[in-house]
Specification:
This protein is of the alpha/beta class. It has seven helices and 19 strands. It is 23% helix and 24% strand. The longest helix has 17 residues. The chain starts with a strand and ends with a helix.
């Protein structure tokens, strides 16, 4: 099947691209490897956004929340209703396996009608499609940064935190000092877990939500949550962990390890597609920030993936404009 535009990624920014494509009169397809807004679905159950609801809106559709900062459940409800209202064309639970470029001028479809040059062949685990323009909006929540220590592959170790009740009355290690680590530490502690944080730096992260930061710092000060700063996990064992601290290596009894060490986009997928990445440690994809077209003609990036490994630079609120610029660029080529 041929589509003028194929969008890879069914998160908020991929949806925004679909809405803009529809407004411009394009047939399009959004391909998502998981459920609708898959990354948001896998966020912790009790997560609250840093952004206010109006900054998470897409397509000009109001996002009404009962609180200033919406919850995960409210966001899932909002984006689902947007998808319904806009009648977005999704293929969910379909993973893109390969993208190839192909130029075939004046190619005819089954009905004999000519369509624009087919630039891309998109192969998934279920089907194959062609597209004149391709937008990749795949986010960064799929590949966790690993600890690279012995025992990380044990079943007791997770890089994703969901429901704190699971850890009630257990000995829990939380690795990290970012928002996700702080939320995991506070929520599991409130459910009765014995929580110890292992932090590589000398303090809780500066980007932690300002209404949460005093809470975790107070819990650490009073001793309710133990924290080892300037420290790192040395080894994870079935019933204990070894922690490298400034005073030496210590052993702690342990039931579960929640490693909130951050996530990264699938840049290898971009590299295989032919997108140039910067040679520095950021590995920023080559994009024209007036159109968000990459070094490959008609292949665009949208959302946080545009920042490479610098995932703190782009969010929903400052990536929504990518959709408008991309579709405007495609329109100019017709």
């Amino acid at each position: 099947m041929h589509y003028p535009i194929i969008i890879i990624g069914g998160g908020p920014i991929g949806m925004a691209c679909g809405i803009e494509a529809k407004k411009a009169g394009f047939e399009y397809l959004i391909i998502e490897k998981g459920c609708l807004v898959n990354s948001l679905f896998h966020y912790p159950e009790n997560m609250t956004f840093f952004s206010t609801s109006e900054r998470l809106e897409i397509g000009g559709i109001p996002f009404v929340s009962k609180n200033a900062r919406p919850s995960k459940s409210e966001a899932l409800e909002y984006y689902r209703r947007v998808a319904q209202a806009e009648k977005l064309n999704f293929h969910l639970f379909e993973r893109v396996m390969e993208i190839k470029r192909q130029i075939s001028k004046d190619k005819k479809q089954n009905g004999g009608e000519k369509h624009p040059d087919t630039n891309f062949i998109v192969t998934t685990d279920k089907d194959q499609y062609t597209a004149s323009s391709l937008i990749i909006a795949t986010g960064f929540y799929d590949i966790p940064y690993l600890l690279n220590v012995p025992g990380e592959d044990l079943p007791k170790v997770t890089h994703y935190f969901k429901d704190p009740h699971f850890y009630a009355f257990q000995k829990v290690i939380v690795v990290g000092a970012s928002n996700s680590a702080v939320d995991a530490a506070l929520e599991t502690w409130r459910k009765g877990a014995e929580v110890t944080m292992v932090v590589r730096g000398n303090s809780i992260g500066e980007r932690v939500k300002y209404w949460v930061k005093p809470d975790i710092e107070n819990r650490i000060s009073e001793g309710s949550i133990k924290a080892y700063f300037n420290s790192a996990l040395e080894e994870i064992r079935e019933k204990e962990v070894l922690i490298k601290t400034p005073e030496g290596i210590i052993s702690l009894e342990n039931d579960w390890v929640i490693a909130m060490t951050g996530y990264q986009p699938d840049l290898d997928f971009l590299r295989k597609t032919g997108v140039h990445l910067s040679a520095d440690g950021v590995m920023k994809p080559e994009v024209d920030e007036t159109t968000y077209q990459t070094n490959i003609p008609d292949l665009y990036l949208a959302g946080v993936i545009c920042g490479g490994l610098n995932t703190h630079r782009l969010f929903i609120e400052n990536s929504r404009e990518h959709a408008e610029k991309i579709i405007r660029s495609i329109c100019k080529k017709i």
